[in-house]
Design brief:
Strand content of chain B: 25-35%
Largest sheet of chain C: none
Order of helices and strands of chain C: HHHHHHHHH
Number of strands of chain B: 18
Radius of gyration of chain B: 25 Å
Shape of chain C: elongated
Strand order of the largest sheet of chain B: 6-7-8-3-9-10
Oligomer: heterotrimer
Number of helices of chain B: 15
CATH class of chain C: Mainly Alpha
Number of strands of chain C: 0
Distance between the termini of chain B: 55 Å
CATH architecture of the largest domain in chain B: 3-Layer(aba) Sandwich
CATH architecture of chain C: Orthogonal Bundle
Largest sheet of chain B: 6 strands, mixed
Number of domains of chain B: 2
Chains: A mainly alpha, B alpha/beta, C mainly alpha
Largest interface: A-C, 46 and 41 residues
CATH topology of chain C: MetI-like fold
């Protein structure tokens, strides 16, 4: 467990390194007049002057030797000193921390929803491979995975919001707003996790210990409860770690589609406006969220699998 | 005598194809019945049919009478209520049969609690008593991957019987075990018999049948060809195949050894030592191998036989000591025959492809291969197949042909027949020795079977962990 | 009683699913590249007179909101997606496999060094990396290509290393070395036949996720930008007209669906 935690700490350090390096390179690639443009965005074209442009350049520490600037840049990053947004002028940390709250809410509901849909269906299919449920699930999952997430989102909007009028499309002030974006994310996750669960259930039900459970005299349900459930849960939970890549990517797209004021949405906006401090803050926090979710998976595996507890 | 299991006309089919012909047998209380046959003879299918455990795609006919109740073997589901309660089915590989995420004690207690419907505490007590009776009380809190092979075997045995079954079916219970653990399993089964239980054993191992006593049935190509009291059948076999089977037991081989041969040494090892996993395998090991000499090494697994051979071939380095090879002999004239034939060929290409590569690499004559194949009684058609599509015995002979192509002066044969059936084993060893003698090639032969080594080798060496 | 003595015969021949996938993909490739040979309408030429005109016998695909030929735009967008995906997959596969074999073969410090670099790329979800790269030089498909390749190579590396390591230690490779075979034969006869099926699977899934990523970025307007035809961007452009002209919105969706479906079918491992 200690070793796993240490691994996650290393991962967090790598996230900082990658985000820091990329955003630093970004500042070096900003054309000179971009500083001017960003300054113009902040002060209006009328009053912008070379002094304001120089201020922006200083904020991005463009005028220092590269290595010193990089060192300063990384040092600021690990202290969560992202500076202020070039576009809104607000401190990045303030903006990102409110957005993080929204994203966490969305992600949590999406994960729960996907766990309610995917693994139970997959386990049922895995108990009878080749059966009707199994074959229909293969068809649906393959179809779902061949559709980009925003298309699934669009379909959901068209069906639930525009046609049936059940849920609102955009906004974030009451829980109803959460349903459609979370469902979009959850369906994408479940389309994969049901296959993982199905394969896991199938291979567990083919093991010698599963057969031995039966020949010991246990009923099918007793074998499943005693020897199936825990052994299937381990790969499903482990695979959640892989799915978080997909979740974080989905958050970017789905938040933009539903105008959900989370970090993914903010990141896209910042990239569009080349707002380097915001890009840095949003990407770093999203990266850390990814690491934290993975650490959570480690902890869950630890709880479920007694083999893990020993080490 | 009280008959507990009477099987009448049990047969197994794959579609319309009959794999096991209608067979009848009886098992009495406190007795053993051993079904003996080679791989593919249908002996396991017969047992699986009786237990209602045939794999998908296979079906059975016939009737089993258990303690006076009739069961139709064509309806395997009707046999399921017997599992654990009347029929205890011993898993073939106990390590794999235990749930890797459950403590040993709980796996045994399951039978008491869920099958015999005891209270949880009482079930745990019973399980503890079972483990103690088998001498593995310290296994209770452990997970399967912490158990030694012998412990896992006992835990699985306790778990299989916890539901109260008094008829035990054991399919190849000693497969792949070395001598010490094999005797362990036999003792376990005999204990069951002495306590009044009945045991049905399926095996290819005649020695096992002899030790278990009771009755024996010999199966050949889906047909029982001989049946009777084990002692009587083994001392006075009537069927030809039974005779061959008995003759194939290394203990009954005629000795092939030639003594007193002295020619030039091809490999001289001086004061070798090797430690593996913190355990000293041998030290100060001296060895001189002469041309055409067959040297045997025997011992349980993990004793360092393989390491010694690998060191002689230069595959691993000794911790200490030196090896001198015959000057002038090319490296590729020192070859190895592996324990598991399929794993010694590239898995995804045909065997012919592999041998053609070899012929091209060393500029050999293709006719030598043809001659070798003929000599080893191998069909040229086998060359079109991949290793996974050839039987173990044929594949091992192919690997002998492959090694012989390079005219080796030294061959390290590492348990070359331990995965083969007895008759195939005898043929393979005979051919290997014959070819080596003809070509004046020295062999270092390892085996866990002391009789095999004694009968085959000119000289037997001890591995010394001095 | 775990090992049946009798095994049902294995299914042989070319898997149906893979054949279906190749057929769909082949159709899409023809649709995308035939206009280059035979000529066709300009995907950028606007003609407001034709705005949102539906499919007809003369023109099966109709026109978008600016009166541009949907057929021309779809095939141009397909060329971009397929071309970029293929290029990224090849760019990722070659070094990924070579580094994987090198790490497995040499082990030790080389293994740990390359392994460490691959960990760094895995620390961050792939799309974030691609997003940030596109922010360095916006509006440039080259950055997309670079980003996607940088994300994809890690999987080839890890899988190649994981497959090769036990194989190189296996008795069959040891036997080949004893028989005198050199590294080239071991690569060709032992490693390659095991790696090739994995590469088909990972390659087609990788191409599918590259296509998805390009479309997702186009959709959030940070990837390829209008007026360049790109499937994701086309969808967001056509979304406001979904009631008047559903055919226009459905076409890029269908094209992406078919493309990814085909790649999934090609990559699917045959399971009983």
């Amino acid at each position: 467990m200690i070793r796993l935690l240490f691994g996650r700490l290393v991962q967090a350090a790598l996230v900082a390194l990658m985000v820091g390096l990329l955003t630093f390179v970004m500042t070096r690639f900003l054309p000179g007049d971009l500083a001017y443009r960003i300054a113009a965005g902040r002060y209006g074209y009328d009053i912008v002057d070379s002094a304001a442009a120089a201020k922006v350049a200083a904020e991005l520490s463009i005028n220092q030797p590269a290595l010193v600037a990089l060192g300063q840049w990384m040092f600021d990053l690990v202290r969560f000193e992202f500076g202020t947004s070039l576009i809104s002028g607000q401190p990045v940390w303030e903006e990102v921390s409110t957005q993080l709250g929204h994203t966490l809410k969305l992600a949590a509901v999406a994960i729960l929803l996907s766990l309610l849909i995917g693994p139970p269906l997959g386990i049922l299919a895995g108990l009878r491979p080749g059966g009707l449920l199994d074959r229909s699930l293969i068809l649906i999952s393959t179809g779902m995975r061949a559709l980009p997430q925003f298309v699934v989102g669009l379909g959901i909007i068209i069906i639930f919001s525009l046609t049936l009028g059940l849920f609102p499309v955009a906004g974030h002030d009451h829980p109803g707003h959460l349903v459609l974006p979370a469902l979009t994310l959850a369906l994408g996750l479940a389309a994969v996790s049901n296959r993982v669960a199905r394969d896991a259930m199938r291979s567990v039900s083919e093991t010698a210990f599963y057969t031995f459970g039966r020949t010991k005299g246990l009923s099918e349900w007793e074998v499943f409860r005693g020897h199936g459930l825990r052994n299937v849960a381990v790969p499903i939970i482990t695979y959640l770690g892989v799915q978080f890549v997909y979740l974080i990517e989905g958050v970017v797209v789905v938040e933009t589609l539903f105008a959900w004021p989370g970090i993914g949405h903010a990141l896209v906006h910042a990239i569009f406006g080349r707002d380097v401090p915001m890009i840095q803050g949003a990407a770093f926090i999203m990266g850390l969220l990814f690491v934290a979710l993975n650490a959570l998976v480690d902890a869950l595996c630890h709880l479920i699998d007694p083999r893990e507890r020993r080490t | 005598m009280n008959t507990v299991l009477k099987v009448t006309d049990a047969a197994v089919f794959a579609g319309n194809k009959q794999l096991v012909e209608p067979t009848s047998f009886e098992l009495a209380q406190g007795r053993v019945l051993t079904i003996v046959g080679e791989t593919g003879s249908g002996k396991s299918l017969l047992a699986q049919a009786v237990a209602g455990l045939l794999p998908d795609g296979l079906s059975a006919t016939g009737v089993a009478n258990l303690n006076g109740t009739h069961f139709d073997l064509a309806k395997p589901a009707s046999l399921r209520p017997l599992w654990g309660r009347t029929l205890g089915i011993l898993p073939q590989e106990p390590w794999l049969a235990l749930d890797p995420t459950m403590r040993a004690l709980d796996q045994v207690a399951e039978g008491h609690r869920l099958v015999r419907h005891l209270e949880r505490a009482a079930a745990l007590d019973e399980a503890r008593r079972d483990l103690k009776a088998l001498g593995v009380e310290d296994a209770e809190g452990k997970l399967p991957d912490q158990l030694s092979g012998g412990m896992a075997q006992r835990v699985a045995f306790a778990a299989a019987r916890a539901g109260g079954a008094r008829i035990v079916i054991a399919d190849e219970p000693t497969k792949g075990l070395d001598v010490a653990r094999r005797d362990d399993v036999i003792a376990l089964l005999m204990k069951e018999v002495e306590a009044g239980g009945s045991v049905l054993v399926i095996t290819h191992d005649l020695a096992l049948a002899r030790q278990m006593g009771g009755e024996i049935a010999v199966v050949l190509q889906g047909q029982v060809i001989e049946k009777g009291e084990t002692e009587a059948v083994l001392s006075n076999p009537s069927h030809d195949y039974t005779k061959r089977l008995i003759a194939a037991d290394p203990a009954n081989w005629t000795a092939m050894a030639r003594q007193g041969l002295q020619s030039e040494p091809i490999l001289v090892a001086d004061a070798l030592s090797k430690t593996r996993g913190g355990k000293l395998l041998f030290s100060g090991q001296n060895l001189k191998i002469h041309r055409g000499e067959i040297i045997g090494v025997s011992g349980p697994s993990g004793s360092g036989k393989s390491s010694l051979g690998d060191i002689l071939l230069g595959l691993i380095k000794p911790d200490d000591g030196v090896i001198a090879r015959l000057p002038g002999a090319a490296r590729h004239r020192f070859q190895k025959i592996y324990q598991d034939p399929p794993s010694s060929f590239p898995a995804r290409i045909t065997i012919g492809q592999n041998l053609d590569d070899l012929i091209r690499l060393h500029g050999l004559d293709r006719r030598i291969l043809s001659a070798l194949l003929k000599r080893l009684r191998l069909s040229e058609d086998l060359l079109q197949r991949r290793p996974s599509d050839v039987s173990g015995g044929e594949l091992q002979r192919l690997s002998i042909a492959r090694a012989m192509l390079l005219e080796p002066v030294f061959l390290f044969a590492d348990e070359p027949t331990s995965r083969l059936d007895p008759i195939t084993q005898q043929e393979t060893v005979d051919l290997l020795v014959e070819l080596a003698r003809e070509r004046d090639c020295a062999i270092l032969l390892t085996s866990h079977d002391k009789a095999l080594i004694d009968k085959t080798c000119d000289k037997v060496i001890d591995i010394a962990a001095a | 009683m775990t090992s049946p003595e009798y095994a049902l015969p294995r299914a042989t021949g070319f898997p149906v699913r893979r054949a279906a996938g190749l057929a769909i993909l082949g159709g899409l490739v023809l649709f995308a590249f035939l206009p280059l040979l035979f000529g066709g309408p300009d995907p950028l030429k606007q003609s407001l007179r034709l705005s949102l005109q539906g499919p007809s016998t003369a023109d099966w695909f109709g026109y978008d909101h600016l009166g541009r030929s949907m057929q021309a735009r779809l095939s141009a967008a397909l060329r971009l997606s397929l071309g970029l995906a293929l290029l990224s997959v090849v760019t990722a596969m070659v070094p990924g496999v070579l580094l994987g074999v090198a790490a497995a073969w040499r082990g030790g410090i080389i293994d740990r060094f390359i392994g460490g670099i691959s960990e760094a790329f895995l620390a961050l979800p792939g799309l974030l990396l691609v997003l940030m790269l596109t922010a360095i030089v916006p509006d440039n498909p080259l950055m997309l290509y670079l980003g996607i390749s940088l994300v994809l190579w890690v999987e080839y590396f890890r899988l190649t290393r994981a497959l090769s390591k036990p194989l190189l230690l296996s008795p069959s490779v040891e036997a080949s070395r004893l028989l005198g075979f050199g590294p080239w034969t071991i690569l060709r006869r032992h490693l390659w036949p095991e790696l090739a099926p994995m590469l088909v699977t990972v390659g087609s899934y990788g191409a599918a996720s590259a296509i998805m990523a390009i479309a997702a970025l186009g959709f959030v307007s940070v990837g390829v930008r209008p007026p360049t035809p790109e499937l994701g961007a086309m969808m967001i452009e056509l979304l406001p007209y979904y009631e008047e002209a559903p055919h226009a919105l459905l076409q890029p969706i269908l094209v992406i669906f078919l493309m990814v479906l085909a790649l999934q079918l090609i990559g699917a491992k045959e399971k009983p």
